[in-house]
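Regression report. Comparing outputs from two consecutive submissions.

Submission 1:
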Amino acid sequence: MAWNEPGNNNNDPWKNRGGKDQGPPDLDELFKDLGNRFNGLFGGKPSKEGKGPGGIGISIVLVVAFVIWFLSGWYTLREAESGVVLRFGEYTELKEPGLRFNPTFIDKVIPVDIQTVRTIPASGFMLTQDENVVQVEMEVQYRVLDPKNYLFSVPDPTNSLRQATDSALRSVIGNSRMDDILTSGREIVRQSTREELEAIIEPYKLGLAIVDVNFKDARPPEQVKDAFDDAIAAREDEVRYVNEAKAYASEVEPRARGQVNRMVQEATAYKQGKILASQGQVAKFDQLLPEYKAAPEVTRQRLYLETMEQVLSNTSKVLVDTKGNGNMMYLPLDKIMQQQGVLPATGQRPATDYNTGSGQTTQPTQSNRPSRGDRFNDGRN
């Protein structure tokens, strides 16, 4: 009899294979069995119809799964980070630092540090403009400026920046002389490298900002290092000598200018003195001329006596008596007057008053000078 003929036949090969009920599972029976199992875990009794306490267990499982999913979506972005949100793999927005919610299996958040300053070294042997080989070491400091471009513009922005740095450095070194690179042109090389690097990375939109470029070291190859050290030392000596010469010039020049000004002032004063003295002599002769015209002989005699007075006042004088009885007697007037305290010790005899003969030690002036009549008076009436 066939297994599917009418009657109480229970020979379904899918339900009773091998002597047991091993047919393909029914979905209703499968859910019923799962409900009974979970119901047993939570203290309920199994239900043959899949209702009652078994349905409550499934609901509890779903609630627990939802709670786990909800809690797993919370995350925290640090102060230095910015979150790049991808919804089903597509960029949507940026998240600010703080406590945020991200629906699990829907959105993905990639934190990017946008404040930390990172460093890329660059070094190597390079050819200069004057066809010399120099070993240069440089360090580039950068930070992330745009997280979106940093993640999606190029596959590896750090490697791209490293290659751009090497290219910019070789371009600048190739247009510079070796002496400038090793000595006074280091700052120019550093600034030029930064400008060249920023111009190279701008079209690629790497999302990076150059903070600084540090020129660490530049030296010639070891084979010629001693010669270049001597050249650098000579250049430093040149700079030192120039500075010393400038300092010496700064010290001597003001002193020389002061001396020049003093000499000019002295010459001007001497000139003015001579002019005034000449004018005084002219005025004196202008006053003497009328007297000379009035009495030429008397004026001539007076001028002679005044001249002799001026000459004899600065010389030693001896009085000699030649009218004696064969003996010559002389009197050193200067010594006698010095012993009496009339003349100073210098030996210069001041002019005396010819009228009184008192030997008064007063310098003759225009006011106390004897008149012409008194000057020729020998004391006799």
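Submission 2:
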Amino acid sequence: MNKDTGRRATIVDVAKKAGLSKSTVARVLAGSSNISQDAAERVQAAVLATGYERNHLAVGMRSGRSGLLGLVIPDITNPFWAEVARGAQDQAARQGVSLLVFSSDWDADKEAAHLRALCQARVDGAIINPVADNLADLDRFGMPFVLIGSSAERFPDTSSVGSDIVQGVRLGLDVLLAQGHVQPALILGPKSRLARARFLRAVHEHCIERDVDPSILMTEDSDYTVEGGRSAMKRLLQAHQNGQHLAVFCANDLMALGGILAIRDAGLSCPQDVSILGFDGIPSGAFSWPGLTTIEKDGRRIGSTAVTALYAEIAGRAEHERIYVPCRLLERGSLADLSEMATARLVAKG
């Protein structure tokens, strides 16, 4: 509202307040480069003084852009995907656009319904963690898009952004080895997920490089949830009856947090009896007891990078490449350091 007249402020009000022409004000608001610093500052002050807000619908009709982007993620309740959404939202805000967020719940039909809704909303483009196996299912919606997540690697000729899973898994295994855990057990996701295959392949490659048979590692599959991890850890504890220290590398943090609960349920302690390493870096891992040591995937950076890549796609200058965001170690308290004990055992055997 115009603070002086009590009605909705117009660009004419801004021009009058700034002492500039309407066309100059319009060019300033459109972000034109050939504008003096003085004119830009006068327009900014006039906008604040009048309470002017741009009519994005009218701007979109003139420019062919809606000022809206879409984001379809698989599970909004998973804190990692919430971090991705936050990163995308922050970057979209810096671009002066809004973000519509949908959760597919790993359901291809829901994904398709969300994409139809985004088309109807006339979004300028979409960021998608693809559930559908056929890229044509996405192409038919006729909008620029960028893929995110491990499942995007099924489409190497499409622009995508995701964590460097291989680097992250190798980092986790190197940390475990350095702390004396030479044969960690694994809690993996469902066999239907590409992320599980990528994680397990990285483990196998790491083992083969060390001349270790990967089949000797205990593994359990579960859903990527707290309860899934709790059940998988319970099964591992039942199978591990030799009294030696057990280390477990989980494919995501929710499963790792469930694993800590199962350790407690069994009357054991973490990390005194069982060490556990997560993968994601969700904030709640800092508040568990003990704090969860994990390999952090930078969700916010993935989201913001995806928005930048999407704008390149919209502008028709995308290179259609896979952008890998590196992972890093977050050390807390869920890993016991057995390196001195491992060294002592080697000396004793020698």
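Expected: both submissions complete independently.
Actual: both completed, but the second showed a warning that disappeared on reload.
Relevant detail on submission 2: The chain has 13 helices and twelve strands.
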